[in-house]
Design brief:
Distance between the termini of chain B: 33 Å
Helix content of chain A: 25-40%
Strand order of the largest sheet of chain A: 4-3-2-1-11-12
Strand content of chain A: 15-25%
Number of helices of chain B: 23
Radius of gyration of chain B: 94 Å
Largest sheet of chain B: 6 strands, antiparallel
Oligomer: heterodimer
Number of strands of chain A: 15
Distance between the termini of chain A: 63 Å
Strand content of chain B: 5-15%
Order of helices and strands of chain A: EHEHEEEEEHEEEEEEHEHHEHHHHH
Structural class of chain A: alpha/beta
Number of domains of chain A: 2
Number of strands of chain B: 14
Shape of chain A: globular
Largest sheet of chain A: 6 strands, mixed
CATH class of the domain at 1-122 and 805-860 in chain B: Alpha Beta
Shape of chain B: elongated
CATH superfamily of the largest domain in chain A: Metallo-dependent phosphatases
Chain lengths: ~400, ~850
């Protein structure tokens, strides 16, 4: 038997930090998630898979646009028309009701666990291979409860688990927190997970897999995106899996270490060379310029300007683009001995969580978004980086402070 | 460092005044107003940091040029430090530069570089000292303007090497931060972005309405489609009912028809078979009459009145005669042609025949004789000549022998041909005749040859010598012959010519006979032509072909007449026959009509029509009856109300029309809903709104990060300065709070220093009831207490770095008894570690602070 497992299509989901793109390029970005989904369906049909598992967050919200719903319904119908069994759940973003879906009724379509009830469905492939899928859908955006105890013990058939959830590790996890061991103990043959956008295999015996999302939407979602194609040896029950990239655009982060001051054109040529080397199909690059101490104010201003990136993009292959530039210091600004130590200590103190929170207090109070950003480690990391850049930039102004 | 001695020389009102301070840290200078307390404070400051003369005058330390105008002005201060005793002496005389005066520093009596002293007090300037260590009424007023910044600057000065630049950077970063975000603003980038985000969010939430709207429309659509289906069902039912009604109305109609038909139906006495037969007979009569009429019309009288068989016989006779004549004529002509051909052949084949044919037989016989004669003479001559020439016999014999076989060959050939002919003719008689003839011919010829040979030999031998003469005679003879007959006798084989001549003559005789016969036949022809002309009454040429043509024409004419006669006879017979048949058929018709009791066929036909009508009525009746079915019995039993039926039907029709109208409305509504739903199906609005939200969120994120980074970078610098200055500022602030609380007897708990001074962000204090009050709202007394708390805290805080005495100059004017007690207690406490010089005109205070205050003594 063959199956495809994908999750987190997030149709309708916006793309962050790309509003400066030219309209036609922007349209391509906009269509990329749809394209990826279409490719997954193409793959399912071409591979004649028996089953497609959709592990939640197919839509970006519980009230997706009719256009997205219709598109999704159309793609699913292509599968059901090809007599491919589709089993789908809702995630924390698309916590809808089965009745909200515009997917055409078909014996080949099953929405599992509507109303947040763990449900098991049994199927037989055309070749007579028996399998079951057990899982649940979100009925609200948060599930604080560990749902694993609700999963029934496995039967003699090949058992799939289907769940949109995150591991318990992080505090304040409200996405059906589970412990890996619990999941392993269930001994389902293949646990198809969704929610985490970075694909990862949590375990290979039994399989516990996050396929990642189907299209990277911003610099936080790096690397190849697509789906898992699984093959089950019907005689032995052994499963092999293969990641199939289907995304039109791949996001990559490239760090460029500066060791000396470069002229404007030298630096640009170096950036182009560096990025061109790392193009794999259409790639969107986030560039980190490490060693901003070596940049002049003009260069800093230039590289912070989105329009300057366009010039680099023009020189990249495969329609790739530079869409993000970040700066980082190398720490070459030197203050006099005791001051240096004081700065180091001050930085550590000020940038410690509590201090940070205290400093951001009024800002944090302004909006939920502030709090969300503040809870995002990437945001904090970026912030700390920026603090350093700013300090370095200012302190470099002090006469003779750069240790060149 | 403890100030041990103050020596003033020509300074302000003082010419010479020395204060030696007793042991202990709290020194009280008591004196009435104008006693010189402020001058002393100014002196202490100015000796250390320079005189304030005219152009270097500060705002409140006035020019202390000596009243006595005695120079040099100045004096000295003696400090007791850990490493020894320092004496600072500053003097200035008019015209000296710098105007701040000349400073001499001695350590333990030895002059040392002034830096040795000033390094110990961190090289602060006079401003710093005045601001930090001197308390007087003028400075007190500054309390409302105190800001963290200023205090910090003073504090950090003591720590980081580039504190002022760092403070400037920090200030810049703070400025940058506050240009990005302010808690209550709507103009700063972060605020603007957030406002946008919030607006977008509302809109994006509204975009969720698109989902709802689509769902609602979908539901509505389903509902409307359900309704439409219901109405359609209703319509179908109504139509069914209406059909039933229509059928009922039809049945009523049928019943009415049934009744009418029933009335019309009656029996008719009619025999269809008889009628059909009558019609058939009548038709036969009609046909026969018509036929007879036609036949009669076509029966034309014959154009001639001849005895046709007789004529036929006559014609045959003529034809026979003509043919006989023709046959004979043809035979004669053929024979004539054959003879003519024979004659021509003879003429052609026989040389010189043409020259002899015109000769009569006698003439020819003479010719024959002439020729024979000639020949004989010639032969004789030849013989003579031969003899004369002595020619051998052998040659002659050879010639004779040569001739013999020829004759035998001819005979054998003749015999063979004769046998062949006889065999073909199968006639032995003919054979015999032929053999006889053959033998005859042979012997005749053989004889002749022998004769000729013998005579020849004789003549030759006899007349050899007379040869020449003979030759001449022979030539003459020949000439004579040729002149007579046109040819030379030697040129001819007379036997051939004889034979041919005879044949020719015999043939000519036959020709004559045949020509005569032809004449006779021509006469017969003329006679026949005459006969035919008489018979046909048309002129007939005496030409066999014409006669034959005439006879053929006559034959045709006769044949036509014969056919016409035959036709006429047949037609006449047919008419007679038909007339007989007509009479029979008419009789049968009349009999039938009588049997059916009708006068005429027309009457019979009328009766038939009636019968048909009745049959039709009956059929209609049956059909109506069938259509009515069981209803007939019900109608007959109970009748019906037609008008009620019609009304019910009309109502149903109306209901149907109404239902159809409603269905149309529903369908319109459905199509509207489809269109409206369709708009959403293609709408990119949700995405656009979300994208917009994401865009603004990204902006907010970016600006916020920028803001926070600036804020934090500033804090890092501040914190770094704190750390570099050993955390003096926070410690100082804490101390100040403690002091303030102490000085106000616990009525105030906290001090909130603004980052920088401004009207909008004044220094505030927190009362015991947690209420925050800007400093300007505090009573003068409380303000003074705050001022004391802050400054004292500061001084205490920097004590390890700058250990100089605190100078409190008559500043307690506003302190009431209770407050004075507090300050006195505090000063007493502080003075345990720090030297404090109090200059006061208040005796109670002086006594409270010191058992033995230093008193100003009026100079002489």
């Amino acid at each position: 038997m063959k199956f495809i497992h994908f999750a987190d299509a997030h149709l309708d989901s916006p793309f962050r930090g790309l509003s400066f793109l030219p309209t036609d390029e922007y349209e391509r970005v906009r269509a990329s998630a749809d394209e990826s989904l279409t490719r997954i369906v193409d793959l399912a049909i071409a591979e004649r898979v028996d089953l497609v598992l959709v592990a939640g967050d197919s839509f970006d919200s519980n009230k997706p646009s009719p256009a997205s719903q219709l598109f999704f319904a159309k793609q699913l119908q292509r599968l059901t028309d090809a007599q491919i069994q589709v089993v789908m759940i809702f995630g924390n973003h698309d916590y809808m009701q089965a009745s909200d879906l515009l997917v055409k009724q078909s014996p080949y379509f099953k929405l599992l666990g509507d109303g947040q009830e763990v449900e098991r469905a049994d199927f037989v492939t055309k070749s007579g291979f028996k399998y079951s899928v057990t899982g649940f859908s979100y009925a609200q955006n948060h599930i604080e409860e560990d749902m694993i105890p609700h999963f029934p013990p496995r039967g003699s058939e090949y058992a799939f688990g289907l769940m949109h959830a995150a591991q318990k590790a992080a505090s304040g996890n409200v996405y059906a927190p589970f412990a890996l061991n619990e999941l392993k103990d269930l001994q389902y043959d293949y646990f198809a997970l969704g929610h985490i956008h970075a694909g990862q295999v949590l375990a290979d015996d039994p399989w516990i897999v996050y396929p990642g999302n189907i299209q990277g939407r911003d610099i936080g979602e790096l690397g190849g995106k697509g789906c898992i194609l699984g093959t089950v040896d019907e005689a032995s029950g052994k499963t092999t899996i293969d990641f199939k990239p289907t995304a039109s655009i791949v996001w990559r982060q490239v760090s460029l270490e500066l060791a000396e001051s470069l002229s404007k054109s030298e630096l640009e040529a170096r950036v182009v060379r560096e990025l061109a080397q790392k193009c794999q199909g259409k790639t969107y690059f986030s560039l980190e310029l490490r060693g901003t101490e070596y940049l002049t104010d003009d260069q800093l201003e230039f590289w912070a300007d989105e329009h300057a990136w366009e010039g680099v993009s023009q020189q990249l292959p495969a329609d790739s683009r530079l869409v993000d530039v970040r700066f980082a210091v190398k720490g070459v600004v030197k203050l006099s001995g005791s001051d240096q130590e004081a700065f180091k200590a001050a930085e550590a103190e000020v940038l410690a969580d509590e201090q940070l929170k205290a400093a951001a207090k009024t800002w944090l109070k302004k909006d939920q978004l502030s709090q969300e950003l503040f809870a995002d480690p990437q945001f904090i990391a970026g912030l700390k980086q920026l603090v350093k850049v700013k300090l370095a930039e200012r302190l470099a102004g002090l006469k003779g402070e750069i240790d060149k | 460092m403890r100030l041990k001695q103050i020596k003033m020389r020509n300074f302000g009102q003082f010419s010479q005044q020395t204060f030696t301070l007793p042991e202990g840290n709290l020194d009280v200078f008591f004196g009435p107003n104008e006693a010189g307390k402020s001058t002393t404070v100014a002196f202490i400051k100015q000796v250390m940091f320079g005189f304030n003369l005219k152009n270097t005058a500060s705002s409140f330390f006035e020019d202390y040029e000596p009243l006595s105008k005695s120079y040099p002005m100045g004096g000295s201060l003696v400090f007791e430090a850990d490493d020894g005793e320092y004496e600072l002496t500053r003097t200035w005389s008019k015209g000296e530069k710098p105007k701040t005066g000349k400073l001499t520093v001695c350590k333990d009596g030895q002059e040392v570089p002034e830096s040795l002293f000033f390094d110990q007090i961190q090289n602060i300037d006079g401003g710093f000292y005045a601001d930090s260590f001197i308390f007087n009424e003028d400075l007190l007023r500054q309390v409302t303007g105190l800001s963290e910044g200023e205090i910090l600057e003073n504090i950090y000065y003591l720590g980081a090497a580039q504190s002022s630049q760092l403070l400037a950077i920090r200030q810049d970063l703070e400025k940058e931060a506050s240009s990005l975000f302010k808690p209550t603003s709507h103009k700063m980038p972060v605020n603007v972005a957030l406002d946008k985000v919030q607006a977008d969010r509302a809109q994006a939430a509204a975009a969720g309405e698109e989902f709802d709207a689509y769902k609602r429309l979908n539901d509505e659509l389903l509902q409307e489609e359900g309704k439409a289906a219901k109405i359609a069902k209703q319509i179908s039912e109504l139509e069914g009912e209406l059909k039933k009604r229509e059928k009922m109305a039809e049945q009523v109609q049928n019943y009415q028809s049934y009744l009418e038909l029933k009335q019309q139906v009656k029996a008719v006495d009619f025999d269809e078979e008889g009628y059909q037969q009558a019609v058939k007979l009548n038709a036969q009569v009609q046909t026969l009459q018509a036929t007879i009429g036609k036949e009669k019309a076509s029966l034309k009288p014959l154009a001639q009145d001849l005895d046709l068989p007789e004529r036929r016989k006559q014609l045959s006779a003529f034809k026979k005669a003509a043919a006989e004549l023709e046959r004979k004529l043809t035979a004669v002509n053929d024979q004539l042609d054959a003879l003519a051909s024979k004659q021509a052949s003879l003429l052609k084949l026989t040389a010189n025949l043409n020259k002899v044919v015109s000769l009569t037989p006698d003439e020819f016989n003479r010719l024959h004789a002439d020729w024979t004669n000639s020949r004989q003479k010639e032969a004789a001559a030849d013989d003579q000549l031969k003899q004369l020439a002595s020619q051998t016999d052998k040659a002659d014999e050879t010639a004779g022998a040569a001739k013999k076989p020829n004759l035998l060959v001819y005979g054998a050939l003749y015999l063979l041909i004769s046998l062949l002919i006889a065999f073909i003719a199968k006639s032995p008689v003919l054979l015999a005749v032929l053999v006889a003839v053959g033998l005859g011919l042979y012997f005749w010829q053989a004889g002749r040859q022998k004769q000729a040979q013998a005579s020849g030999r004789a003549e030759q031998a006899a007349k050899a010598e007379q040869a020449q003469r003979l030759r001449q005679e022979l030539l003459d003879e020949e000439e004579a012959f040729a002149r007579r007959y046109g040819f030379r006798a030697s040129d001819v084989n007379l036997d051939d010519l004889v034979s041919s001549y005879r044949d020719f003559v015999i043939n000519a005789t036959q020709v004559k006979e045949l020509q005569d016969k032809r004449e006779s036949l021509a006469d017969s022809l003329e006679a026949l032509a005459k006969q035919i002309q008489d018979w046909t009454k048309t002129p007939v040429p005496q030409d066999l072909a014409a006669i034959s043509g005439q006879l053929e024409a006559a034959d045709e004419q006769l044949t036509l007449y014969e056919r016409q006669q035959r036709d006429f006879d047949q037609a006449s017979a047919q008419v007679a026959n038909d007339q007989k048949l007509l009479r029979e058929v008419d009789l049968r018709l009349q009999k039938l009509l009588t049997k059916e009791k009708v006068k005429s066929l027309d009457e019979f036909t009328e009766r038939a029509k009636e019968q048909r009508r009745q049959a039709s009525l009956q059929a209609q009746l049956t059909a109506v009856k069938n259509a009515l079915g069981e209803q007939l019995a019900r109608f007959e039993a109970g009748g019906f109300d037609a008008s009620q039926l019609a009304a019910a039907t009309a109502e149903l029709s109306q209901q149907l029309a109404e239902a159809k109208r409603r269905l149309q409305l529903e369908q319109q509504a459905i199509s509207d809903l489809h269109a409206r739903r369709g708009q959403y199906a293609d709408s990119a609005k949700v995405f656009a709104l979300k994208q917009n939200l994401a865009k603004d969120e990204a902006q907010f994120k970016k600006d916020s990060q920028d803001y926070l980074a600036s804020l934090l970078a500033g804090q890092v610098i501040g914190r770094a300065l704190d750390l570099a200055s050993n955390d003096r500022f926070p410690k100082m602030l804490k101390t100040a709070k403690d002091y303030f609380s102490l000085l106000t007897g616990g009525r105030y708990l906290d001090i909130i220093l603004p980052e920088k001074k401004s009207k909008r962000t004044p220094l505030k204090v927190v009362r015991a009831d947690k209420k925050k009050l800007p400093v300007e709202y505090l009573s003068r007394g409380t303000q003074e207490q705050l001022y004391f708390a802050l400054k004292l805290a500061f001084v205490v805080q920097i004590e390890d770095k700058i250990d100089l005495p605190v100078l409190i100059d008559d500043s307690f004017v506003n302190f009431d008894g209770k407050r004075t007690g507090y300050i006195a207690g505090l000063l007493a406490k502080l003075s345990q570690d720090k030297q404090i010089l109090v200059f006061t005109a208040r005796e109670d205070l002086a006594r409270q602070l010191s058992d033995a205050p230093l008193r100003y003594v009026k100079e002489d």
